[in-house]
Amino acid sequence: MSEQQAKLSKSEAKTYRVQGFTCANCAAKFENNVKSLPGVQDAKVNFGASKITVWGTTTIEELEKAGAFENLKVREDKEKAVKREPFWKQKENIKVYISAVLLVISWFLGKQYGEEHIFATIGYAAAILIGGYSLFIKGFKNLVRLNFDMNTLMTVAILGAAAIGEWGEGATVVILFAISEALERYSMDKARQSIESLMDIAPKEALIRRGNEEMMVPVDDIQVGDIMIVKPGQKLAMDGIVIKGTSTLNQAAITGESVPVTKTVGDEVFAGTLNEEGLLEVKVTKRVEDTTLSKIIHLVEEAQAERAPSQAFVDRFAKYYTPAIIIFALLLAVIPPLFMGADWSEWIYRGLAVLVVGCPCALVISTPVSIVTAIGNAAKNGVLIKGGIYLEEAGNLKVIAFDKTGTLTKGIPSVTDVVTYNGNENELMTITAAIEKGSQHPLASAIIRKAEEDGLNFNDVSVEEFQSITGKGVKAKVNNAMYYVGSPGLFEELLPNGIQSEIKEQITTLQIQGKTVMALGTEKEILALIAVADEIRESSKEVIRKLHQVGIEKTVMLTGDNQRTAEAIGKQVGVSDIKADLLPEDKLNFIKELRDKYRSVAMVGDGVNDAPALAASTVGVAMGGAGTDTALETADIALMSDDLSKLPYTIKLSRKALAIIKQNITFSLGIKVLALLLIVPGWLTLWLAIFADMGATLIVTLNSMRLLNVKE
Predict the structure, then answer these.
(1) Active-site residue among 403, 610, 636, 643?
(2) Residue 403 and residue 413 in one domain
(3) Does 403 participate in catalysis according to the annotation?
(4) What is the CA angle 243-249-255, rounded to 5?
(5) Domain match, 517 and 625 both
(6) CA 381, 384, 385, 387 torsion: positive or negative?
(7) Per-residue model confidence as pLDDT tens digits over 423-458
(8) Whole domain around residue 467: which residue ranges?
């Protein structure tokens, strides 16, 4: 948001949907027209999402007047789109068919009676007028304002062709240009459909119970706290918490996970997910504009408005390139006849061909179509990329750093081993759990969970004189005997002769395996060792392998854990580098170091405690975006599921998008250079020039569309 818009955000900002944009240039022109309307303080067009945000006051009639040059249709953001006619039935395309028929008839007449015959000329002129009517209106208006865009170039070229008697060529140019515009419209519509399909995921009404009455209520009228009833086979219309029932939900629309997830009382559920088998009652927790799905749609649309670095380059280039082409064409048409006695009509014709081939259509569209397509594809697969800049940055990544806890591991410690030296395992675990019930430590909760799983009656055990020993453990009296639970260090101090050597060996063995070891004992002896570990996610090892496979040079694991535990987990997962014993600020500094060394670095975390490191990296990737607003806000890329398996797909998509953008720009410029070289021997005809321009636009668009096929 510009500084100007930030100041205005306090005043009324309203968003409208726009139908009928054909090119980025027209969108920019519409934005300028709206800015000059009375009552409007500022306006911002989002071409990718076909929207305009207006600061100030205006009406839809005024906005449509500002877009009359392109026959734009404007509606309120929340209004349902008017169903467009099928592509081949659209009014602007019917004119192309009529022109094409007239062109063919005129060509036959020309063959029959000669090119100069009045019938052939009238046919060509009619084809030019019908096919190029809207083009000429835009072109003339621009010419008067000395605004040289594609329409101006084409208008001058076609009128010039008619003036020197090349009626057939002029008509061919009109039709080829109209076809290229239609194809450009079609491709942008196709790319935008990825967002529109997201909008249709959630139902527009839901069955709500208020008091004893059940009724169908439109989503805009559903309030926080309403009870929503969701039958099997129905989609959820709102976010909420399950208050009754158990079912499996297919969350693919939000998280990209194809495997359904079981939800029961107390679980969070999202709008747009499909209830597969049970009847659920859900208490609504967010209004329709605040649901996770609405946020995704909003972020995707914002992302498509963000200019990528390559797009900014292309826009700057086109700004100087178009006037340069006009000057070059003018000099080419005038200098040889004036100073070398060459034929006027031949050199004017060559100048016109330069104007046509100079059209920067393919170049201007080369980046936005790729970005809109890639971001839409990612959103469908449960990955939110917040702008073209992050898409390109992700494509350039060499190093990815991962937070360990909750990212590579599940973040929930669990008991992995119980080694007893004196006494029965169940009895000793019951005593340990009874004592740890009073502790707040995460490792204590792992012991209590284990005791609950084993069905031990630790709640019935009476515990007295409970006391915490800071940083080392706890002690308490059970059945009149004093027990201690804590780190091996506590027992080194406590036992008269320290820990026995065979127990020490056992502790070391467990620690090498990446486990945290606690001991239960008295002042005289250790009775049992309990090993606790944070379990590695099943997907982590495979994700790291795939990342190295797609060309990531270095993967780093960052953790506050001790070196031994970190190395054990790092080896299991397969990362290339491990950094242990880190405080949050150490993580931040380490990311900065990596950036200095490798320039492009991603940080992957769960978005809450990793926010500073995520912000410091080139690309911050947060996982579990569906559950936490923080992840959606702080990250540049959010993986909606609480799982890393989408990361290799994201890198693959970004690299493909980057490659396609580079191919498009190179191809667009290459074809221009080639066509301009054909001028020297005089081989560049007008229809060949427009064919080169149209072909380039079409190839660039189809090339961008390949991004729809990138799968996991």
Answers:
(1) 403
(2) no
(3) yes
(4) 115
(5) no
(6) positive
(7) 888 888 998 999 888 776 777 888 898 898 888 888
(8) 409-533
